[in-house]
Amino acid sequence: MTKPFTKICPVSPAAQPSIVAINGIDVIVDQSGSQPRLWLNSCPHTGAPLAMQADELICDTGEFECCLHGAKFERSTGLCVSGPCKSEYLETVPSKIESGYILGQLP
After folding, report:
1. Distance, CA of 102 to CA of 82 (rounded, Å)
2. What is the 3-state secondary structure of the chain?
3. Does domain 6-104 match CATH 2.40.50.140?
4. Which of 51, 76, 83, 89 is the most buried (most CB within 10 A)?
5. Neighbouring C-beta atoms of residue 80, cutoff 10 Å
């Protein structure tokens, strides 16, 4: 059975990446590209949160950075480019836009 899509947040292309808690699941929302991207806020190395707050997500190179061990992830793909989980990906949350809102298909 397909899981339903859940309303995550309003579309706001100028928004900085954010962390949104929905039904106990933390989702990273990045609206910087032409299409919003969503990932679970969970590092593939340990399963710990990538960041506890949105202002901790972006490092000086513009990539997402894990607050636990400094792994860096491409914002466009979620690919880990350095750190103990190099070549692994953040878990993508399928998404779509509907009526001005970003919807996500949560696990």
Report:
1. 29
2. CCCCCEEEEECCCCCCCEEEEECCEEEEEECCCCCCEEEECCCCCCCCCCCCCHHHCECCCCCEECCCCCCEECCCCCEEEECCCCCCECCECCEEEECCEEEECCC
3. no
4. 51
5. 23
Task: Put the strands of the sheet holding 18-22 in their side by side order.
Answer: 18-22, 25-30, 37-40
d(CA 88, CA 10): 29
Q: In whole angstroms, give the CA distance from residue 42 to residue 73.
A: 12
- Cα separation, 72 vs 106, whole angstroms: 24
What one-letter code names the amino acid at 82?
Answer: S
Pick from 47, 34, 19: nearest CA to 104:
19
pLDDT exceeds 80 at position 1: no
Query: Does pLDDT of 56 surpass 90?
Result: no
Whether the full predicted model's pTM is greater than 0.85, yes or no, is: yes
